[in-house]
Amino acid sequence: MTRTAYAFEVADISSLAKALVRQLGETPAPPGHLAMLNMLARGAGWRNFQHFRASYGARAALAEPAPAETVDFTQVARALRQFDAEARLIRWPSRASQISLCLWALWAHIPADTSMSEREVNVHLNAWHLFGDPAQLRRFMVGAGMMSRKPDCTDYRRIEQRPPPEALALIRQLSARG
Predict the structure, then answer these.
(1) What is the rounded CA–CA span in Å between residue 116 and residue 118?
(2) Which of 12, 41, 59, 131 gives a 20 to 30 Å CA spacing to 116?
């Protein structure tokens, strides 16, 4: 079985030595392997060896950069064709992938943390599309999990979440236009 090596550092070796002497004086017999690991960890400021090991693993995980998100720019370019120079949706896209991206672009214009009536949502959607069907857009956004609504359709809210990488790229491109 392979063993993981853990680097052990202390800011002050003198205080570590004092902590070990005190802990060794409290034990009636020589400590075992695990007890000694716990003593070393406590002397360096952790609760026990398990706490030291978890902290070491977390530090190593945070030191690694997050993987870069890949963006399919062909999808973004296709979706951009559905918008005019003022970043308004001209027509309803025919492909499902473009529908989703276009809905994300409209989602970005819906106010966050705001309770809205159906009429208020329509005002926001009508400002950002030109084909005159806010009801279809509302239904698709609710169905896609981008907005929530009460069963009686009196309260709409944007659901806060991170859009997919392609949608973020599309939103950035459209923001530059508008």
Answers:
(1) 7
(2) 131
Please write down the long-range contacts of 99-102, taking CB distance under 8 Å and 24 or more positions apart.
Answer: 99/140, 100/144, 100/167, 101/75, 101/76, 101/166, 101/167, 101/170
For residue 137, give every residue at least 6 positions away whose Cβ sits within 8 Å of its Cβ, in sequence order, or none: 103, 106, 125, 129
Confidence bin at 62 (pLDDT 50/70/90): confident
Q: 49-63 and 33-43 helices cross at what angle (nearest 10)? A: 60
CB 23, CB 15: distance < 8 Å: no
Q: Which two tokens stand for residue 56?
A: 């070491």
| 86-96: pLDDT as tens digits | 999 999 888 88
